[in-house]
Amino acid sequence: MEIKQKRLSVQKWKYTRGTDGSTVKVDVKPELENAQKISDRRIIEVAEIGRQIEIHYGKPMDIEWCVEKDKVYIVQARPITAIGGGNGEKIDAGNEVIVTGLGASPGIASGRVVIYDDSMSLDIVKEGDILVTSMTMPDMVPAMNRAAGIVTDEGGMTCHAAIISRELETPCVVGTVSATSLLTDGMVITVDGTTGTVYRGNAISTSKPEVATTVTVASEFVPITGTKVMVNMSMPAKAERSAALPCDGVGLMRSEFLFTNYVGEHPVSLIAEGRKDELIEKLTEGISKVCRVFYPRKVILRTSDFKTNEYRDMKGGADFEPLESNPMIGWRGCSRYVSPDYKEAFMCELAAIKKVRG
Question: What percent of the chain has pLDDT over 70?
Answer without folding.
Answer: 91
